[in-house]
Amino acid sequence: MIPAQFDYLAPTSVEEALSALAEHGDDAKIIAGGQSLLPVLRLRLNAPEMIIDLGRIEALRGVRDDGDAIVIGAMTPHAAVQKDPLVAEHAALISRAVDHLADAQIRHRGTFGGALAHADPAGDLGAPAIALGSQFVIAGPSGTRTVDADEFFVDLFETAIGEDEILTEVRVPKHTGWGAHYEKFVRVAHQWPIVAVAAAVKAEGGTISEARVGLTNMGNTPIRARAVEQALVGQPATEEAVSAAAAHATEGTNPPADLNGDSDYRRHLAGVLTRRAVLAAAGA
Amino acid sequence: MTTLDDRPDVAPEIGRDRRRKEDQRLITGRTRWTDNITLPGMLHLAMVRSPFAHATITAIDTTQAKAATNVVGVFTAADLGESQGVLINAWAITEDQVTPTHLPMAGERVSFAGEIVAVVVARTQAEARDAAELVDVDYEELPAALDLKKAAADEVLAHPELGTNKSAFWQFDSEGAGTGGNVDAAIEKARTDGVVIEREFRQQRLIPAFMEPRSTVVDPTGEQVTMWSATQIPHILRFALAATTGMPESKIRVIAPDVGGGFGGKLQTTPEEWLTFCLANRLGKPVKYTETRSESLVSAHHGRDQWQKLTLAAEKDGTVTGLKVDLLADLGSYVSLVGGGVPVLGAFMFNAIYKFPAYQFNCQTVLTNKTWTDAYRGAGRPEATYGIERMMSELAAEIGMDPIELREKNWIKHEEFPFTTVAGLEYDTGNYEAATKRALEMFGYDELRAEQKQRRDAGDKIQLGIGISTFTEMCGLAPSRVLGSLNYGAGGWESATVRMLATGKVEVVTGASAHGQGHETAFSQIVADRLGVAFEDVEVLHGDTQIASKGLDTYGSRSLVVGGEALVKATDKVVEKAKPVAAHLLEASVDDIEFSGGRFSVKGTDQGLAIGEIAAAVFTAHNLPDGMEPSLDSEATFDPVNFNYPHGTHLCAMEVDTETGAVKMRKYVCVDDIGNVINPLIVSGQVQGGLVQGIAQALWEEAVYDDAGTLVSGSFVDYLLPTSADTMNYEIDHTTTPSITNTLGTKGVGEAGTIASTPAVVGSVVDAIRHLGVNDIQMPCTPERVWKAIQGAGRGGDSTEGAAMPHFDTDQPGTDSTEGAGA
Amino acid sequence: MMVDGAKVADDVEPRTLLVQYLREKLGKTGTVVGCDTSNCGACTVHMDGTSVKSCNVLAVQADGGEVTTIEGLANGSELHPVQEAFRDCHGLQCGYCTPGMIMQSVALLEENPKPTEAEIREGLEGNLCRCTGYQNIVRAVKQASGQTEGVTA
Fold it and tell me: What is the DSSP string of B255-297?
C-alpha cells in the first residue's frame, strides 16, 4: 500500500523539469496525474529514487486552437479535455473516448499526456490519437521535436519519448464535422477495455468519403486500422458495406490473451466492434 | 421518567421502515474501524508471504531486515515456536477426516501462495513494509496440487506427509436414513421407462471481498489482553485464542468494533490475528496489522469451488423420482474453521422444494495448494440451489414442459406443511404457489415468452432468455443438537440481555455481532414493541466480549431468528420481573396486573405505571416486595428447535448478444417469503445486496489461478466486482407465511438473494441460446464463454470446461480448472 | 494545505499518500482505504473542487491545495443533503464505502445537478460497494438532487 522511499521535485517550468531529468537520469520517473503510476508504486512493482512532478507547470495545461489543428497540453486533465468545446468541435473522437476513460475521479486527476506517455495498449486515448493522425511534441535537452502518430507508440509501455525528454503537447489535426464513436467492450464498467474501436467518419449523402479507425488492446501498441479505412472509402454507410470493410480490422493485430478473452476472441470482437463503431460514427 | 407513548398500536415498531440508528456515524465519518485505532507505542506488522503455491523453505535470512531503521524484530516460525498457537477446524465432518496442522506461520513448507513465512515488527507501517522486502527466503519448489479433479485423484499431494489429498467423504442416503427410497433403483428405473438428466456443473471459486480489509490490533498492556479485530465472530475468536494459546479465556477480551462487511469472509480465525496476538504479548506493546487488498484477496479465505455431478431421475410426465449428488469440494490448503462443513450444509438443500422420493448426497472434500476456502454468503446452500434449479430447468427442456409448470408439479403444496423432506428436515411453513403467482404477474412472463419466440423465429442477433429459481434455504444456524449430530464443535444458540436503566433507557446486549446488517435498528424496534418503550430509548450493545459475554456471533442468517428470539425471551423475563413490583406499588394482586403498550395496569381500573417508572423504583429499591432482588435486568439464551425456511421465486430476463456473447439483464423480479418483516427498508437492502452477489457469481466473479498456483485475479483490476453501472433495480416483493419456529414469525433474509439469484441468471443465459444447441455455460458467464458456447454448439462442443457430460461413464479428469476465464 | 476548513502544515515523506496523511497525521479516519489499485473509491475526497481518490495522490501534491473529507461535509450538526439522503434511502449497510460514495455523489451533483438514473450509475462507477447492490445509493443521489422526495421515518 505504501510506496518505497523516493525523493520528490515539483518544477514549475519545462526547463526546470528537463534539467532535473538530466541530473537524475535513470533513477527518475516523471509523474503527471499519477493515476497509473501511483498504483504501480504502491504495489512496489517499481521503485524510482526520484519522482519529478509536472503538476505545477501551468504552461502544460489547456487546449488551444492552432489553425488546422488543436493543441492539447500534456498536463490537461481528462475531465477538462472531456468538457472542452474545441475538442468537441474538432476532435470529437477524443471527447467520446475520454467519456469512457476510467472513472470520474481518475478523469479529474489523470492527464491527457500522462495517459499517452504511459502507453498502456489498453489505454483509451492511444487509438483515437493515432487515428486522427496526432503529432506529439516532445521537449528535450536540445530543444523540441515533433513525432508523428505512427512513430509515437513503440511497444508495451514504450514510446518515442527519450529518457531525458518530456511530452509537452499533442497536436490533433482538425476533423471538424466528422462523426465519431468510441466502442468499448468491457465486462464491468471500471475495467480496462478488452477491445475498443475508435472511429471517425466523414460521410456525405450516406456515403463515406473518409474514415479513421484505431484499435485499443489489439497488440502491444494502439493500432491504426488502415485497411479498414481504405475499404470504407466510397462505401455507403450500410451494415452490409461496413461489415465487409470491418472484416479487415484484424490485419496487423497481435491481441493479448488474458482472463477476459483469448486472442481469437479479441480478433472476432475487433471485427464486430469496428462495424458498430463505424456505423455509429456515420450516424447510421 | 414516564415514557410517553400515546401511539394506539401495541406493536407500532415492528414492520416499520425505520431509518437506521447506525447511519449518523457512518455518513459523517465518525467511525471506529479497527485500522482507525491508534495506541501509544503501537507497533506495526508486515507479513512476508510465499510467492509459491508449494515449496520447502530451505533458509530465511532476516539479518538485513532486522538492521533496518525502526525495526523492532523479525520473526519466523522457528522464533515463535509453540507461542504462535495453531488454527483450528471446528467441524471435522467425519471422524477420520484428514486435517493438516495449520500453523499461523509456516516453518518448513508452504502450501499456498500467500502463506506467511516471516513477520516484521516496526514502528511504522511503511518501515515494516520496507524491511519485509529485505527478508530473504530460499524456497525449493514442490509440485503443486491445483486442479480439483486431479487433486482428488491424488496425482500430486498438497501435503505429502498426509499421503492423500482426500480429507473426508460424507454421505447422506435417504434409504439409509429412512427418509426415502433407494436412489440408484430410482435412476435405473428411469433409464428404462423415464427420463434421466445427468449434468456436471462447476461452482467456481469466489472471494468474499468485503470492502474493509481485515485489521487486528492487540493491546497487551492491561490485566486482560484486548484484541480489536475486523471479524464477524468475536466470541468464537476469543474461545479459539484461549483454546490454542494457553491463555485463559477470562484474560482475553475481543472487540469487533465497526466491521466493514463480512459475507462469511470474516467468519474465520486467521493467521494474522494469531500472529498479532502472539507478538503483542511477546513484545508487551500494542501491535497492529492491517492487510492490503492484494493480501486480502490471496490470504483471506475463498468460497465455493466445487464440481457437482448431478443425476436426476423422473417419470416421462416430469414427476421427479430421485436425485443423486456427487460433489468434489476444494478445501484449499488447510481445513479452515468451518471447512468441509460448508458443502455439507448443502446436503439438506439439493432436494429443495421438491418431493423427491429418493435422494443421495455424496461429498468428497479435497486438499489443494490454493488459498483455503470457507463460508461465503449462503455457504453450501447457493451451491445446492444452483445445482437443483439448473437441473429442474434442464428436465423441463428435456421433456418439453414449461419450467414453471414442471416445478409446480413437483413442489410441496402449501397445504402439505409442515413437510418432512427426503433430507430429513421438517419445513415448517411456506407457500410456493403464492410467491410464484405474484412473481409471474410482476414479471410479465407470458409476454416475455412471446418476445422470446419472436426473436428466435426472426433469428435476431439479440436473443432473449428467461431463468427461473424457485428456491428455499435453511437458515437460523442452528439447533445445537443438529450441529452436535453433524460433529460441529459448538452449539447454535444465541444470548441476549436486557438492562433497565434508572433513567428509563434500555440497554440491550446481544451475542450477535453486526457488520452492516442493522441490528441496532431492528433489535431496537423489537424491544420498543415488547417493552413499550420509545425506539430512541433503546441502545443495542454488541461485539465486545466484555460487554456481551456470551454469544455465537453473526452468520448463517441467524441474528434475527435466533438472536432476536433470545431478545424476545429476555424482554419477557423483564416484564415478568416487573409485574410483582407493579402489583406492590399499585397495591394490587399480581394476577390482576396486565402489561400492554409499556404500561402495567390493574385490570378494570385506570391505575397503572409505566415500565420506566418501575425501573426507577427498582433502581432506588426503597419500596420493593419483600425478598425481591432489586433488578429487572434479564438474560436469555435461545437454542432453536428447528431451522426456518425462507423461500421465493426469482425470474430473470436476459438479452444475449449472439455476436459478442455479451449479456444484458432486461428484468429481474423476486418475490421472497421471509415470514414477518421487522424493518422493510433493511430487508430491501439485504435483498438488493444479496441479489448482486449472486448475480456476480453468475456473470463476473472468479478467483483464477495460473498453472504455477499464483492467484491471477489478485486485485480488483482482475477480480471483477460489479459497479453501479453494471447493475440495475431489481423488482422486489414479498408474500408472507410466518415461521412457526420463533415467536416473531421471522425467517432469515441475509443470504436469500445470493442463494436464489445465481441459477436464475445462468438459466436465463442458457435459455436464450438453448435453441442454438447450448445447455450449459460455465460460471462466470463471460462474453467469451457465451460466444464460444454458441460457436461450439454448432460443432457439438460442451460448454462447461472439464465437465463429464452428457454421460458420466466416460468420466475423465477434466481439463485444468485453473485455466479459468481465459481458457 | 486547507483540510476541512482548517489550515494544516506537517513535514511528510514524499511517498506519503494523501489518504495516509489524512488518517495518520490529521486523524481524519472517516476517510478509509479499500484497495491498492485505485479501483474501489473508498478514499474519495475533494481536492481543489473536484473528487479524487486520495490513495492516488501524494500528500506533497496536495500542498497548497484545499481538501474536503467526509468529516468536513456537514455544516456543523446540519447534514449535507447527500448525507441525509443516504440515510433516508438506506444507501449504506456496513458503511465502509460510504464516505467515498458520498463524496463522489456530491461531486457528481455539482457537475450535473439533475442526473438521470443512468448518469448516476455511470458517475459512481469508480466506487465499489459490496453490501447494497447500489440501488438504494442510486435512489439516494436522485433524492438528494431534488428529483424525488423522501420521507424520514
Answer: E--B----TTTTSS--HHHHHHHHHHHHHTS-EEEE--HHHHH
Facing A1 at nearest CB: one of C33, C39, C125: C33
Q: What is the mean pLDDT of each run of 10 residues along chain C (153 residues)?
A: 97 97 98 96 97 98 97 95 98 98 98 98 98 97 91 50
Read off the pLDDT of residues B410-461 as tens digits, 9 standing for 90 and up: 999 999 999 999 999 999 999 999 999 999 999 999 999 999 999 999 999 9
> Is the pLDDT assigned to residue B582 strictly greater than 70?
yes
Do A139 and A214 have their domain in common?
no
Tell me B183's DSSP state: H
Mutant choice from C54, C93, C125 vs B, greatest count of B C-beta within 10 A? C93
Smallest Cα–Cα separation from A187: which of B725, C23, B165, C3?
B725
**Domain-located, residue A2:** no
pLDDT bracket for residue B795 (50, 70, 90): low
CB B423 within 8 A of CB B179: yes
- We report the CATH number of the domain holding residue A125 as 3.30.465.10
Q: Are C13 and C25 in contact (CB under 8 A)?
A: no
C68 with C114, same domain: the answer is: no
What are the backbone dihedrals phi and psi of residue B442, each rounded to the nearest 5 degrees, phi first?
Answer: -65, -35
pLDDT over 60 (residue B2): no
pTM of model > 0.90: yes
Residue span of the structural domain in which C19 resides: 2-72
Structural domain boundaries enclosing A208? 180-281
Chain C contact partners (≥3 CB pairs within 8 A): A, B
User: C13, A1: Cβ pair inside 8 Å?
Assistant: no
User: What are the tens digits of pLDDT across the range A78-126?
Assistant: 999 999 999 999 999 999 999 999 999 999 999 999 999 999 999 999 9
Residue type, B222: G
C 114-153: CB under 8 A from B: 120-122, 124-138, 152-153
In this structure, the answer to whether residues C92 and C66 fall within a common structural domain is no
Number of neighbours of residue B283 by Cβ within 10 angstroms: 16
Is the sign of the CA dihedral B303, B306, B312, B318 positive or negative? Answer: positive
One-letter amino acid for residue B303 of the chain: G
Please report where in the chains the cell 450500410 appears, as a residue: A238
- Looking at residue C96, which CATH number applies to its domain? 1.10.150.120
Q: What is the pLDDT of residue B8?
A: 43
Q: How far is A176 from chain B (nearest CA, A)?
A: 32
Summarize the confidence of residues A128-135 as an average pLDDT: 98
Q: Per-residue pLDDT averaged across B26-49, rounded? A: 98
Query: What is the pLDDT confidence band of residue B556, given thresholds at 50, 70 and 90?
Result: confident
Chain B residues 629-668 with CB within 8 Å of chain C: none
Q: What residue ranges define each of the domains in chain B, with the CATH number in brackets?
A: 23-31+493-638 (3.30.365.10), 34-142+213-259+266-299 (3.90.1170.50), 168-207+301-476+642-822 (3.30.365.10)
CA distance linking residue B326 with residue B312, whole number of Å: 12
**Residue A278, CA distances (Å) to A108, A149, A212, B213, B779 in order:** 29, 21, 9, 44, 33
Strand C6-7 to strand C44-47: parallel, antiparallel, or no bridges (unpaired)?
A: unpaired
Kindly report the nearest CA distance between residue A40 and chain B, in angstroms.
Answer: 12
Checking if the pLDDT of A187 tops 80, the result is yes
Q: What is the pLDDT of residue B554?
A: 87
Task: For residues C32 and C60, state if they share a domain.
Answer: yes
- When divided into structural domains, chain A yields a total of 3
pLDDT at B477: 83
